[in-house]
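Hi F.,

I've been meaning to write this up properly since the lab meeting, where we talked about keeping a consistent format for the predictions we share between groups. The idea is simple: the sequence comes first, exactly as it goes in, then the structure tokens exactly as they come out, then a line or two of notes. No screenshots and no reformatting. I'm using this chain as the first example so we have something concrete to point to.
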Amino acid sequence: MESSYQMDMLRGRCQELPEVRSKVVRVFVSSTFSGREYYTLSERDSLIDSVFSKLKDYCREKYGLEFQYSDMRWGIENESADNHSEVETCLNEIKLCQKYSVATNFVVLLSHRYGSRPTPATIHASLFEQLQRIILFDLNLTEDAELLSQWYQLDTNCIPSAYILRPISSMLPNIKSTELNEMKKAAKEWTKINNRIRTCLRQAAAKCFEQGQINANEYDDFFISVTEKEIINGILSVPNANERTLCFLREIDDIYDHLLDSKASRFIDLNYSDDGKPIIDYEAEQLLNRLKSTRIPNVLQSNNIYSYKVHWKQNGINRNDHAEYISKFNDDFYDAIKQQIDNCVKSRIMIISGPLQHEILEHAIQCKTYVAKFHGRADVLDKLEKYIKNEKENRPCIVYGASGCGKTSVLAKAATEALNWWSDRAVSVILRFLGTTPTSSTVYKTILSISQHICKLYNLSMEIYPDVLQLRHQLETNLLIRIPANEYLVLLLDSIDQLEPEAYDCQWLVGTFPHNVKCIVSTIPDHGNILAHLKGIINYNQLSPNETEHLLVSVPSFEVSTVEIVYNDWLAMKKRSLSDEQRLFIHIEDRLEESQIQDILIGNDSSKAVFLSNDRLRDHDHSGWNEIYSEMIEENRKNRQLRLIYADFTYSTYNLKKMTIALSKDMTINQTISNSQLSENDVKGKTHCPTISSSSTKKYINILLFGESGVGKSTFINAFANYLYFQTLDQAQQEKPIVIIPVSFTMTINDIFDEKIIKFGDIDSNENHNNLGQSVTQKCQCYVFDISQDKKLCIIDTPGFGDTRGDNQDNLNMEEIFSFLHNIPYLNGICLLFKPEILELHPYFYSCFTQLFDYFGENIRDYIIFCFTNARSTFFAPGNTRTLLKTFFDSFPIKNIPFEKNNTFCFDSEAFRYLVALQNSIEFDPNERNEFEQSWLRSVIESKRFRNFLCNQHSYRKNIQWQSIKHAQFQIKNMIRPILETLRNHLRNIILYNSNSCIKLQATHTKQSTMICYAYNRHPKNYGAIWIMPDHLHYSPDMCTSGEQKPIKYTLNYEFLNQKVDESIKELKSEHDNLYVTCAKFSYFLMKTSSNSKENPFLSDINRIIHEEKYICRTQTMNDLNRQLLNRLEELKIKYEEYLHTIKSSSDDLTLSGIYNLIKSTYKISMIKIQLNAINKYQQTLVLNNQHEVFIDKTCS
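Output, unedited:
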């Protein structure tokens, strides 16, 4: 029986679903902000050593979840301290934990320290001005009031307006000095200033509170600690605190007797008298006691609060002297988190039980995302509502409009509104955003999925036919008509144009529906004649307009009013606003005169020429447009100080009447037309080179390039090569730039952010530049070029993670990467590429980073390299991303990951993009060129440092250091088919032994991606007196819709010989017995170390083999030997399952080294070795076919 949560999902109630597809338990561990390294060090270290790993295993094995913890104990980086974002950093991390964690998200550890109470970084403008008046007039602190004015800056774009504490370095630059004494002097000066600011603000806040001018919360903001702010955001202000949060209180009962001990200040808040004696900080103690005795207990139930009493020891609280307490704390922590995970899973989390549930959830969450950003379209929704409520209409409704007009959002909104439109009825909604998931990318899979959805929803049964029209017939004549009369179904199919071209005729779409079923589809009007075919289904040409016009719903471009609503909502979400002057640059209103618009665009710039046009005017007078464009280009060649701007009014609310050139008042343009055009440089050709190995005359340095989709990996490779070969931008421009990979990007070229798409280089089918958000690099590719006289660099470019097609695509990309790496003998480094100013790490980063360590082993940490692109904006530093990474590494289970200057490199790909744009005849302001020239020079220096680092890197070799669970899993999965086919052939030869004959097995590697189909066109062939099912291959995954196909890397061929096998019958049987034991051991290892502990790939393939033999026995008359083989295979299955059960019941665990030894010994079996060698040849071919060497006819500097 389905749970209410699952039924909500099946019925399309997507607003009840989570905002994100999260399979993570992410816990923020809070404690005092100062003294973190001492205060709860023992507890935290014990959690890392003893508890977190257990919780991680528990989450993975029982629920398929990832357990993560966020521990800020090592403090906040200098960047955050400089701009006073320490509190914001912690609170943002809490929000991330609350957003992504499906269970516990916040735990606080408290004892006797209240912690740091920093000066507020942001104060609402009205409050700040009120406080400043009190400081100036009531407290007569004139100098302090002036100090506030110097250090706080008004931000009027903030809602409400606020005063922001300036970065320390903006007022005291030496705080970042590399000279230690200067830095210390500046730090000391800041401490004095900070104390003065904090003290006067608190005095003023106290005065305001006494006079009733501010409330308690506003007062508290000047006095409470970072820890209390974390607790407010993590526990006190959340609705589900008792389900998701925990509190652990430690009391040192004799701490007050030991205040003179040297380590006491690490465990309790102390001040010091003039003679150096410790004094309790009573204000901090009072606030701490309020927190522990009142605020937390008022929200958390007693069973969410754990209290402990310990005694003081000379070395403070430590794991040796307090082992019993630490053990009790660990047990309580584990049990409490585990219980919350169990409870949350049972009550709130749907564990996806199959592909259908996963598919429904993917579209439901997409729907919720689209609806959250939906605006306007009342007229369109009104038409859809009337269609749904029209009980006499049984034909589908067609929504159409240009690409990007918002059809998808309309259908998403309609999916949620349909529940309200039929509020008096039991309504279900089935929604598919076609082309967004593998299952919705073909019409067959889509109709099959929808049919299964209907069956699940209404408890119906169906057949799975191989043909889409058979499925359609079943849907129309057997499923839809069996939906109960009191149930109503709305079916929505968005973007038919995203299906395969064969589906454009829409013959698969049901033409008439029962009275209680409505269907809405959407498409682009001028694509594949889809709209015409849809009109045919509703008999548009045979009926009058009155009979069909209500079924055709056009979605026009955004109305002017909607545009303003959208960006106002976007601003409101970020709590930001725009001034009237700023709005002029976004929203140029129709009532403005053309001269006013030109004044806005020109401003005070005396060297600007602006070309005003739009797509409509250009298409109407293309020759005139080209004439003006050429005129401006020619003038710019004569006057390099002239800044050319293209103002595109295509999407503006202003109705531009004609094409115009707007000039500064003191400028004129000569009417000279030039038709000259800059030519594009040729790109160096690519040719295949031998497989990567160490046998070349030049040593190969193999680097795996890894990063989020869209970070610019391909551009980075191009940029790095050019920086190595061209010392200056001028040199690169004069010669032929090196383009190793095709380049396509959008460049903003002027003050009003005009965007141009720049493409350069030969088209490469592996580079997908057309689908925004999807990884541009589709498959792993190797790019090889010289970086010194004796070394070649091989960069392995990989598909990016964070693909818009979802986690499933990310997982497939990771499998693609590991499959490709299987034939690489060594690596010299894994290069992680980031942008320097990201707001948060992608949620999938944890998973992919974990998988990297799972595959390569912990020793790979010494080979990790950090590269930052687009670093000009951060002065060639890692920026905010460094803080995020540091926080991430602090909480990552594997410690001591080097992240230092030595293995960190900052580049600016923009200089290379600028070069490519110049090759595409894009003109720039000469002043801008200077910035790019400087950026190029800086990137050249960094590239040489990077090159020298790579040339000195040692190799991380396979089968020496490169041993890991993931790597072993990969090798075992490659061995499943070879082992089982060997077992089957052993049994054949045991049966044939007495007849002095045998079957010889041969393997041939495939030369491209190939699928073996287990469903169709397989006819047994006779070899002697035994029948064998041959391999039936598909060279495209779309050739078959059976769902019974798997990728293979080799094909099997057989030869009947009139002679016995070389082995004796005893040797055959012994090898056979050893192999089924090996299968059981490998299965146990895979099940124990995989996220899905129930999946048993060996058993699945054993069942498939048995099924094949049953089919042979059923279809072939002369089948005595096959019947013997079938009986022996069924015995093999029983023995395998019995031995697997024995292993599971045994307390002996298989070690990783033991598994590698078993892999090694299994490889030696000749029949298995033949098949594995074929797999290796396939993988070598894969690497060879995806490797490109760029020959550069100049010397690397």
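Notes:
The chain has a mean pLDDT of 82.
The first helix runs from residue 4 to 11.

If this format works for you, I'll send the rest the same way.

G.
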